[in-house]
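Convert to structure. Protein one:
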Amino acid sequence: MLERLLKQTPVIVVSGPRQSGKSTLLQHEPVLTKERQYLTLDNLNVADQARRQPLALVNAAPWLALDEIQRAPELFLPVKQAVDEDRRPGRFVLSGSANLLLLEKVADSLAGRSFYLTMHPLNRREKLGRLRQPPVIVRFFTEGAWPKTVVPPLDEAEVLRGGFPELGLNPALDASVWFEGYVKTYLERDVSSLRQIDDLAGFRRLTRLAALWSGGVINLSGLARDSQFKSPKLYFADSGLAAHASGADGLLV
């Protein structure tokens, strides 16, 4: 799929949870690494250049991969400018953690110029190394009968470890310690840098409740109540505009 997309669109945006394998993909997938320069915004020198000379950075190579781009949203408009000047397919591959801020900025800057891919943690077929054959459900529809495939039973330990590559492929790691570090990094690094959230303890309660409600019908008022969040309020930035939009300006004398 990547090879096909690289021939069709100037920008591919790869998003997904932290530690889902995005950086590994950009650095080791042959169709992405061939003749393509890789730069990561985790590198302080690259991050500094992104702030000072964003246009020069995006023009640093004919084919470029920019990783952790959510750290430098100022790059989105220079990428748009570069693409508008030269719409060669596959010119840019951008990668960043999945968050609304990143997706909003990319959508605003790169509408009609990009294709979005989302990387998820490994599924069971990937963890078992069975990628050479089609999924069982695909074989069922193509062959007309349920394949006689022997699959190891799924046990509780495997479910609790999940599918993040580092955990899924390294049974020696302590899953509880790994996940605690993951949540701590998400709260203290990602959330704090993207949104002005003062009550991280409250946000952590919200995260815990969302996990407990996983698979259930979303009840935002219930989540807000149980996590002790205050009721949000809506304001117009200008009172005159608010009066006009609401029809209340007709009451003025």
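Protein two, convert as well:
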Amino acid sequence: MMGQPILGIRENIGTITQDQIVDYHRTHYVGNNIVVCGAGDVNHEQLAELTEKYFGKLPAQTPAGLEIKNQEKPYFTPSMMFMRDDEMANCNIGVFFEAPSWSHEDYYAFLLFQRLLGEYTQDKYTGAHLNYSNSL
């Protein structure tokens, strides 16, 4: 993943402007986003001094009022896969819910919901299969 863009898509690299780079630097090169580590026979005091020298003037966090773009994170990422296989069971689907934690007020209601949905497997409950003449 080295050299790959972390925000946005690869096609944007050809159209990036200097202002966008400066804006990214102001919003992301802050103390909260930086980790300095040393491995091997490292003098801790010297590492701390060099860190302070080169990173000590950075702000601790993004300055107030600056908008940090592209920070939205999806709850669920929908995807669809289409496939034709005459030997496969006819219906495969997944349904997902963001279930409450055990201390949430809706926890027991979701347990009831889970009980109502049950576990449905086509081969157990229908016997229908595309290649069987008696499956209709």
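Residues 1-71 form one domain. The radius of gyration is 27 Å.
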